[in-house]
């Protein structure tokens, strides 16, 4: 098991084929997908395909979404992490984006904030980008709260397929400053 980040409560590791049933559970919940423009899965094979896609990103880009595991129970509770985006969104191409998705029963417990913060820390420490970005459907207030808690700065709204989305960023300088304030 390749652990890439760890917090007091969570382990972030590569997603494995053994995560298929938990991924399927997460992707069958319409509320999990509410702001993502995705339809719930109807076949386990769809979860297998997502895992294969993510694992291919590890090879192609050196990073990808990670399984989020609760330390005390060893349960898969969702995914989080950085994705290297080669497509174009909001006039940006070839950038790192922080994201997260959790099984609904784990919502509201601070896991998204904890995992996103660990992902950003990992990104700036290991991948060395100048900036990390994020986007969220403008209607997804909970996601916006998470992004702001981890130090992401809201920049603007943009249109993605006819739906307003919020665009966020954090720079290496902002991250460095935040880390030095935490250690004072």
UniProtKB/TrEMBL annotation:
UniProt entry tagged with the keyword Transport: no
Domain N-acetyltransferase stretches: 10-173
One Pfam family hit: Acetyltransf_3
Keyword Transferase: yes
Alphabetical keyword list: Transferase
GO molecular function, a single term: acyltransferase activity, transferring groups other than amino-acyl groups
Gene3D superfamilies assigned to the protein according to its UniProt record, in alphabetical order: 3.40.630.30
Cross-referenced InterPro entries: Acyl_CoA_acyltransferase, GNAT_dom, N-acetyltransferase
PANTHER family: GNAT FAMILY, PUTATIVE (AFU_ORTHOLOGUE AFUA_3G00765)-RELATED-RELATED (PTHR43792), N-ACETYLTRANSFERASE DOMAIN-CONTAINING PROTEIN (PTHR43792:SF16)
Protein name as annotated: RimJ/RimL family protein N-acetyltransferase
Native source organism of the sequence: Pedobacter cryoconitis
Phylogenetic placement of the source organism: Bacteria, Pseudomonadati, Bacteroidota, Sphingobacteriia, Sphingobacteriales
